[in-house]
Amino acid sequence: MDKTAAKARIEELSKQLEQHNYNYYVLDNPTISDFDFDKLLEELIALEKQFPEFLNAESPSQRVGGQITKEFKSVKHKYPMLSLSNSYSTEDMEDFDRRVCEGLGMKGNDLFAQEIEYVCELKFDGLSIGLTYVDGKLQYAVTRGDGVQGDDVTTNVKTIKSIPLKLRENFPKEFEIRGEIFFPRKVFDAINKEREDIGEPPLANPRNAASGTMKMQDSAVVAKRNLDCFLYHMLGENVPHQKHYENILAAKSWGFKTSEHTKVCSGIQEVLKFIEHWDKERHNLPFEIDGIVIKVNDYKQQNNLGFTAKSPRWAIAYKFKAEQVSTELQSISYQVGRTGAITPVANLKPVLLAGTTVKRASLHNADIIEKLDVRIGDFVYVEKGGEIIPKIIGVDLSKRPADSKTIYIDACPECGTKLVRHEDEAAHYCPNEMGCAPQVKGKIEHFVARKGMNIDSLGGETIAQLYEVGLIKNIADLYDLKKEQLLPLERMAEKSADNLIEGIEASKKVPFERVLFAIGIRHVGETTAKKISKKVKSIKVLLNSTKEELLAIDEVGEIIAVSIAEHFSNPNNKNIVDRLIAKGLQFELSEEQQQGGSDKLKDLSIVISGVFEKFSRDQYKEMIELHGGKNSSSISKKTSYVLAGDNMGPEKLKKAESLGVKIINEDEFLELIK
Ligand code: IVH
Q1: Which pLDDT does position 387 carry in this prediction?
Q2: What structural domains does the chain harbor?
Q3: C-alpha 289 to ligand 1 mean position (Å)
Q4: 545 alpha carbon to ligand 1 midpoint, in Å?
Q5: Whose CA is nearest to atom 9 of ligand 1?
Q6: DSSP 3-state of 567
Q7: What's the DSSP call for residue 127?
Q8: CB distance 9 to 47 below 8 Å
């Protein structure tokens, strides 16, 4: 075949194959046998191999996959990828409608007379994806990520046959369309059947499996997984219509798969009917949905309503009630946290719920146990909502065995101390703060954690070991440790002992705000500790502060103020702080912090990229400001330094290098401001 003929045949085959894909995957109406389809595809692949100059990125042969992605590039979304606020009841929906009407300036009688035009859609349970098309060709496919930037998964997305690589007709020059990638039930079941046959563990649930598949390195494996995708949201400056529904119809005509169940509803009552219908019918769909999405149809109205920080005011998700099953409660275990709070956990007879096997459920606290009147031996209803750990929501009294045992605890399961209950709190506490093993170990773990003293040479196992041999009973004991004491311990090599001592020594430089967080005052989190340290400047002032003075600090309310006072009124805690001060830990702001920093970074513009070890990104940002520098988010000729941690984005690296911007690491930065 000569070149001209090959080019024509490749074009013809591409066109035919794409039409067959569309018939099969979008219209669900195949007009060719699988065998004949495969023959055409093989012919195309062979021709493209012979004439690689005619292979293009939109060819149907690309859907077979084969490209390997070692690392997914991070891409900034042109439009942030927001999520929706949730609602769970008719009242929630009526409130939403009222907010919409009021937001659009309707008042009094108007409010009830006026019917907003809503679009109701199924809420597909998969992972969201943003597809950008330029001149009718798929340019990138990006996952949600953190909403600001996501991962470029274009290679994998190209293997999803219902996503057009090339659009059909009359499309805008450039736009983004968003939708949900998911596993149809049948496909998911078939994958699991196959895994079972070859002795591999089944995939837990379709949504996680879809996310996992999108992040696979080998696109040929992704291609075989037969994912699907519905599109539901169009963005861009040149979208053809002023109403959401019309744009979705247009998207359909360009070749996208949109849901046939989407419906325009006039007023909230019609919306509620739609919800009611699908709450019953959802199990008959060939894919999973977890709710309904309701959107104001008219873009002008959408614009008037605008957005909150997290989600649009013109749309809401109605979430169906979570799925439930009943199973036997076999026993209860109790966990003791670092603050002494006791959390009961139910051990259940394993049962399948919404795609996963459930063995344990949280019971939260004694109040809930009492309220539900759950007993060991009972059949309980277990529900899985948004949270990862399922919860017990009721008891099937008709199945209660005669010998069911009430659940009662009055002594700490770890140390036997009689439990107490603080006023207005549902949880039981073990008051043996200094002697109850999980509390002591938990407090030390909290102290050395990354956000605290950041002693990463001291992990949970070593803490347990040191505690068990009696070398540490509290956080202050750490600073008395000697290498000679460590060496005789099991699994403690000379190097680990050195690292441990060095790590502890280095922690003496950790700034006051983090020390204040690390000592573990109940209710004093990272941010609160920061605010307090800035205000009081030294522990001495904090120790002498009255409740009123504490309350005057931003972020400090009654609960925190009382908690601080209680903490230091305990002589044990006071003694620990005294010992830590004597050992040289930072219990006041450094001179620089006191004076509001330095001007060592004056006139410098710094871009932070990557993940850091010593301090968090936010802490580096603060340091930059403290020393007179400017934080900037993108690299330009004006950038003075890029402060780079691990995994700095490859694009940023390239840009910095091409502009000759100096890249410095954490240590170099800290040296700069020393
Ligand atoms: S619209 C600003 N429509 O649910 C509009 N989302 O919590 C954003 N989802 O992030 C999304 N089906 O991943 C929209 N028909 C639908 C949807 C849908 C599923 C997902 C999507 C979104 C999340 C919202």
Answers
A1: 47
A2: 3-64 (1.10.287.610), 86-94+96-319 (3.30.470.30), 322-432 (2.40.50.140), 437-509 (1.10.150.20), 512-593 (1.10.150.20), 597-672 (3.40.50.10190)
A3: 11
A4: 49
A5: 123
A6: helix
A7: E
A8: yes
